[in-house]
Design a protein that fits this description.
Elements lengths: L13 E4 L3 H5 L18 H9 L3 H13 L10 H33 L2 E6 L2 E6 L8 E5 L7 E7 L5 E5 L1 H4 L4 E5 L10 H5 L4 E4 L11 E5 L2 E5 L4 E2 L4 E3 L3 E8 L5 H4 L10 H34 L17 H15 L7 H19 L13 E2 L11 E6 L6 E12 L2 E3 L33 H8 L3 H12 L4 E6 L2 E5 L3 H12 L2 E7 L2 E6 L2 E11 L7 E7 L5 E7 L1 H4 L8 H16 L3 E10 L1 H15 L5 H12 L4 E12 L3 H10 L3 E5 L4 H10 L9 E5 L4 H17 L13 H4 L7 E5 L1 H7 L5 H9 L3 E4 L4 H14 L3 E6 L5 H6 L2 E5 L6 H4 L3 E3 L4 H39 L12 H11 L1 H10 L5 H6 L5 H4 L6 H26 L13 H23 L5 H21 L2 H6 L9 H5 L3 H28 L3 H15 L19 E2 L7 H6 L8 H7 L7 H11 L8 H9 L1
Parallel strand pairs: 15-27, 15-31, 25-34, 27-30, 28-29, 29-30, 31-32, 32-33
Antiparallel strand pairs: 1-8, 2-3, 2-4, 4-13, 5-11, 5-13, 6-7, 6-12, 8-9, 9-10, 14-33, 16-17, 16-26, 18-19, 20-21, 21-22, 22-23, 23-24, 24-25, 25-26
Length: about 1200
Amino acid sequence: MTYFMSCVTSEEERRVRANDRDYNEKFQYASNCIMTSKYNIITFLPVNLFEQFQEVANTYFLFLLILQLIPQISSLSWFTTIVPLALVLSITAVKDATDDYFRHKSDNQVNNRQSQVLIRGLLQNEKWMNVRVGDIIKLENNQFVAADLLLLSSSEPHGLCYIETAELDGETNMKVRQSVSVTSELGDQNNLASFDGEVVCEPPNNKLDRFCGTLYWRDKKYTLTNQNMLLRGCVLRNTEACYGLVIFAGPDTKLMQNSGRTKFKRTSIDRLMNTLVLWIFGFLVCMGVILAVGNAVWEREVGSLFQSYLPWDPPVDNFLFSAFLSFWSYVIILNTVVPISLYVSVEVIRLGHSYFINWDQQMFCSQCNTAAEARTTTLNEELGQVEYIFSDKTGTLTQNIMSFNKCSINGQTYGKYTHTHTLSGRFIRLDFTPFNPLADPNFCFYDDTLLESVKVGDSHTHEFFRLLSLCHTVMSEEKSEGELVYKAQSPDEGALVTAARNFGFVFRSRTPGTITTTEIGRPVTYTLLAILDFNNIRKRMSVIVRNPEGRIRLYCKGADTVLLERLHPCNQELMNITSDHLNEYAADGLRTLALAYRDLSEDEWEAWSESHRCADKATNCREDRLAAAYEEIEQDMMLLGATAIEDKLQEGVPETIAVLSLANIKIWVLTGDKQETAVNIGYSCKMLTDNMTEVFIIRGHTVQSVRQDFRSVSLSAAWGEGGKQLQCPPPPPSNLMDNISGEFALVINGHSLAHALEADMEMEFVSTACACKAVICCRVTPLQKAQVVELIKKHKKAVTLAIGDGANDVSMIKSAHIGVGISGQEGIQAVLASDYSFSQFRFLQRLLLVHGRWSYLRMCRFLCYFFYKNFAFTMVHFWFGFFCGFSAQTVYDQYFITLYNIVYTSLPVLAMGIFDQDVPDQRSLEYPKLYEPGQLNLLFNKREFFICIAQGIYTSVVLFFVPCAVLSDATQSTGVPLADYQTFAVTTATALVIVVSVQIALDTGFWTVFNHVFVWGSLGSYFTIMFALHSQTLFKIFPNQFHFVGSAQSTLLQPVVWLTIALATAICIVPVLAFRFLKVDLKPQLSDTVRYTQLVRQKKRKPVGRKGRLGARSGSRRSGYAFAHQEGFGELITSGKNMRLSSLALATFASRHSSSWIDTLRRKKHTHTHTPPTGAETDIKIMYC
């Protein structure tokens, strides 16, 4: 009995007594009212402002606003800061309020749903929010379940009811739940009103598939499992009515427990930007200190001479205090190096990029009627920096739509195509209708020898399909006579039962104790004695049935690795033949199951049934006891054969993986399937190829063996076979794998991965795996998937993306930098947890290579220009400080300072950040190497930041000193000097706006109507607003606010001013133009080359295209275990319950992706020096001339 002593750890209990609100209220359980909203009318303003001011930037600008309210240090009006700050806070508040309004609306809709509650023997309509723990609720057909209920009774026989859990887990198949037998007869309201049973169960948790509790009633106790529960969010189907006891309500329900907030993800650009902002703030403080020191020196040496008629303003009484105040004044003036509009602009740009993803018709699946969806707006540019993709297999790379393809029965293989074919060369699909009126017309099979074997009455063939028709947990619905609809919880089971149906063994219906079939036209009812349920540890399921003649037989199907070792020794010869067939099926990448049976005597059945009954009723360690009982009976079985199911690859998967590999993106497959299946799918989708140097397989079961495997891999990869003959101790694997040559792949099993993820071995695993082109992890758990992703994030400075379609992929999706959910056959839990979603794996290449690359490019160009224009704007104040006695006097009019980032320069940079592109989307897909700058973080990093800052400082020097030098000696036509403050301010401001407008025109690579309107419109708005602000009209209305009256008109009428502006513009822009021309000519980037050659081709209108093809590979690997199943259904029943790869891409990169594109172009240029240029060669020569 020591085997069963691993008892469950103690935890808090929940006690619920039926029909006793007073008792239950003592525990203060949550009500059934849910509230997902964050604010109400009273709390919105204070709470929202509190949240917004937790952002460092908002707090910083609030601090500046407070400083500006102090007259002694502020040379700017308070509105220069409060206007942009209020605008940012208002926009964010409106967005938050809108989101919360919809949350309130959804909450009210749910909370006000009506439910029938049994109160004092009468059913009363109550709102969901008024339902309490311990209430008994009546549900009717097609109603939503109001709370987590213990099913008490049902209108269906045996206390059964049918539910749909689509809102809970996305699965549309109906599921069955059953009440405890002792309460199933409490169908009458009076009986239910007197029911006073008490439930003791686990506390609230988020485990959808598990429930552990005990019902105490009439001095007896009854075990409760998940099969007795109806969870909130489910819908009652095909059941007239049922009653349930509320166990968990409101926020305690499993639905709400699973709706926790996803971890907030930030991009690498966000993190870099936060660092740069801190640097800029430090730079701002340094400038303030320099100018404050200058003020102290000036006041001591020069200012003291003016004290008699220009005394210090109170409370200043010495030069040190004057310098202190001057420091804060300059902090206010120079704060625009970090404008608050930066953060708003970034969010607007990201929102635009998200809409582009949502609107992309080329990522719309017409079959599923599903569009791509950006479920977050904060990660778009990181899509352009992905280096590692972690993918699920089933349903992600494959369609998860299974078809019965081949089988092996008593040593004979079936399923190969016969020689009979049509004139067109197509194979003829068997027509089962004449043989079997109940056949599924959509079933495809081509080997008529199997059908003939059934017709002639071969006993092994009959027993094979009899097993498939009985050993399953499928539910059948017969809508009309002969029209059967199977509800299978996994596509594998549906395919197998459908195959048996077409070959004459039709599963018709079931009750908790019987299975009714039609065998070769004859109805047969079997007594269902037991179902030995499937789980991921057993990897098999069995049923024990009694046929009409009274013979008891166990039927079992499962993974060949576990089933073949449980066969009777007399099966050795047949097992060898069947294993060979399994290997053949594996070469085709098929998923397999082995089938076996065992005859049981009445005594054997009775003895085992008693031990099974004891294990089933155990309150402690029940799963372990049941597993031991199952193991006892599933021995000495007779082999029947094997099935092979095809799970086809999704459309475009090989092409997508090929293109992503050319973009230097490494793809890892993390799957729960067996090694053989995953490896064959790897070859099918071109992750693994014949051209690879070697495919390493790690399969050790101990720490020592796994470590030795890694070291063997490192030696083999570094030195080949000769590495094994080295006499000196080898260096650590992490050093060996740094400079390997050749392409390698790594395959590792789940038990080996468990050791590889341990702290003392993780570095060996990371270094080995990351040196390989492809990695496949088999038999991994959902937790291991997340651990692998976290490991790469920890040890590699690389952006990771996880993609999957099932609930077992959720942890991996949440762990990666970017999570992508595929809306497929396994529900929508992966989609709900993801950052982006679509319906086909092939759309991933467009998401990354087009939208991701464009988003990264746009954001980098936006940030470079934004920092440039603000340093050019702000640093003019710094230079002016040396000429104004460090008095904190501003160069510009205060209204220009306010409007510069809001009106004059905001829209052009937004247009560039939203619409810009260097090459069209088709070229992005054809030239995957264009993706690499994002991975290497080349377009915006600390170096690029300093270059932008240097250019901005250079521009500020030109904009200050050129007008200062020219205007100091210039005069008007009347002889009046132009060297006045207002003229200088207008000239500098005008030159600044023109220079930054010309600069963004140069930076924009793709012009749209919006770019033209925003760039030239902003320039026009500057002159319009400036003339209005300097007009007599506003001066007469607000004489104390508008001090520059008439300055614009008088200044801009002077030719020398325009000459000064033109000179400053030329000095700022000409070096930039020269540098860019030289860079494109001497060291062009791939995007420059692609753009130029495209331009020349468009002019010549000569299409270029060559055919390329990826070779196929098939290998003799073991096939996969075809049983994507969940535990629990067996117990329930027995208890009563194209985008094709571009030819240009393949032709260009298939043989040359390891060499530089530019080097290739140059080699072609020299090779054909004396050859008449044609086509693309002409384009290249023109470029370099």
